[in-house]
Amino acid sequence: MRSVIVVGGGISGLAAAWELRGAADVTVLESHTGVGGKLRTGTVGGIAVDEGAESLMALRPEAVELAAAVGLGDALCDPAEAPVTVWTGGALRPLPDGHVMGIPTDPAALAGTGLLPPRALARLAAEEHLPAAPLTRDCSVAAYLAGRFGRQAVDRLVEPLLGGVYAGRADLLSLRATMPRIAALAERGGPLLPALRRMRAAAGPPSPARAAVRGVAGGTGRLPRAVAEASGARILTGTTARSLERLPGDRWRVRAVTDDGTLTMEADAVVLALPAFAAAGLLGPHSPLAEAGLSAIPYASTAVVTLVFSRARAPFLPEGNGFLVPPVDGRTVKAVSFLSAKWSWLRAAAPDAFVLRASVGRFGEDDLPARPDRHLIRTVLAELGRAVGPPGEPVAARVTRWDRGLPQYTVGHHDRVRDIREAAAKLPGLALCGAAYEGVGVAACVATGRAAAREVLARGA
């Protein structure tokens, strides 16, 4: 059996280890005290809550299929049905059904919602009468969509959804990397609105039994632990890789540090399941081109503020699953999830409590998540009060910080990733995976991890 060292015990690295089960002797090195990366479930006020990703994309199959394969199929659950809601103009305003990343296929459905003023709504609706040459190169989301629909449509419809996924900004994010379906239509030329309507019609009516996302009863932090166990891999936590060394016969030596000192291991192959900046540091001596490309991927820092309220003492309880906030409105909070309303497993586990969480921090606001806990908690409570009414005082609160937690897919991201992968392919027995490449969601990370495992096996066959 071949030996493989996976550097990084987030879901990407664990998916790689799982894919390698039975085909190689696998060791996973994880710098933190536990596996999972941004899939982490902690406790607030004695209640289990997710501190990172709270759901799995179900429109892509990789994450939910992996969960079922490692024994969590019965734990998968759907969120409560509720529209996507935007807090703007002093009110919570639901996005009408039939939108694609905020772009409505039927602009008339926006009438009366208050999401756009009349002139901006008329500008959006006029898009289908505007000529459009095929898009021939990548550009920012805002550069293309503002030209088609107007700036206010981008600011108040598209930007909140992008911020919820990437904590990024439409002026910087790549259209091809973050909105591939829209980019594909733009590359054909012609107005977008008729093309979006045709695309939705071809897909047929949405299935009421198929939710866009799914949760894991007990928290998504259960998934990485189950994958780690099912992989059969040797998991070394508290172990940070410091250097890679190429050996004769295309083998690799990894030097790592632990609380007990230095650890040196050798293997036939290495999978780097790390953030881009960490992978760059290890690859620098072996591939300056890969290092340069990885170092060019910026990151946003964010924080999650989780609040627990007593149902008996709360003035009232908000309805719906939460809301998104456009940055143009100047708020600190970018998204709020009403976890107790959204997930039935949490209501059952804590029937006397109401749990919600707010996300703060967008790209370029790295100082914001670093502010003291008390400051962030009071800011969230103040803005929550303006959005839904004074919630009262929480009985428990927790701030979780994700320093450089979300890679930014800026303009040219696909070309950048292509160059990184071409450079890394020149290093026998090495593969890359993680959120920095083809998607930041759990499903995309699982896909890159499994692909990296297949790559090292195929190249070593």
Rg (C-alpha, Å)? 23 Å
Please tally the β strands and state the result.
22
Domain tally:
3
Tell me the distance between the termini: 11 Å
What is the averaged pLDDT score?
95
Helix content: 25-40%
How would you name the CATH homologous superfamily of the largest domain? FAD/NAD(P)-binding domain
Shape: globular
Unreliable spans are none
Name of the CATH first level of the largest domain: Alpha Beta
Describe the structure.
It is globular and about 70 Å long. The strands form seven sheets. The chain has a five-stranded parallel beta sheet with strand order 12-2-1-16-22, covered by helices on one side. A five-stranded antiparallel beta sheet has the order 18-19-20-17-21, sandwiched between helices. A three-stranded antiparallel beta sheet has the order 5-11-6. It contains 16 helices and 22 strands. It folds into three domains: 2-38 and 60-75 and 220-297 and 409-460, FAD/NAD(P)-binding domain, CATH 3.50.50; 97-203, protoporphyrinogen ix oxidase, domain 3, CATH 1.10.3110; 299-407, Protoporphyrinogen oxidase, mitochondrial, domain 2 (Polyamine Oxidase, Chain A, domain 2), CATH 3.90.660. The protein has 461 residues and is α+β, with helices and mostly antiparallel strands. A hairpin with a 2-residue loop joins strand 9 and strand 10 (103-104). The termini are close together. Helices cover 34% and strands 25% of the residues.
Can you lay out the helices and strands and say which pair or pack?
Elements: E1 2-7, H1 11-19, E2 24-29, E3 41-44, E4 47-50, E5 56-57, H2 62-69, E6 76-77, E7 85-88, E8 91-94, E9 99-100, E10 103-104, H3 118-125, H4 141-149, H5 151-166, H6 175-178, H7 180-188, H8 192-203, E11 213-216, H9 222-231, E12 234-236, E13 240-247, E14 251-258, E15 261-267, E16 269-272, H10 276-283, H11 288-295, E17 299-310, E18 322-324, E19 333-337, H12 339-342, H13 344-349, E20 353-360, H14 373-388, E21 396-407, H15 413-424, E22 430-432, H16 442-460
Parallel strand pairs: 1-2, 1-16, 2-12, 16-22
Antiparallel strand pairs: 3-4, 5-11, 6-11, 7-8, 9-10, 13-14, 14-15, 17-20, 17-21, 18-19, 19-20
Helix pairs in contact: 1-9, 1-16, 2-16, 4-5, 10-11, 11-15
